[in-house]
Amino acid sequence: MPEGFVEPFTPHPSRFTRRKADIRIIRDVGKARFSDTLRAGFAFAHSAPFRKSAFTLAEVLITLGIIGVVAAMTLPALVNNYKEKELATQVKKTFSNIQNAALLAQKDLGAVGDNTFLFDVTNTHAETAKNFAKYFNGAKVCENKSQKGCSQYYYKVKYATAYKGSGDSNKTYTPDGAKIILNDGSVLTIQQKTSCSRTNTGCKQDSSGNCIKDENGDTISVTEIHSDCATIFMDVNGLKRPNQFGADIYEIQVTTNKVKPGTWSAYGGTSFKNILTGNGKLQYENYTEGEK
Question: What gap in Å lies between CA 256 and CA 230, rounded to an integer?
Answer without folding.
Answer: 9
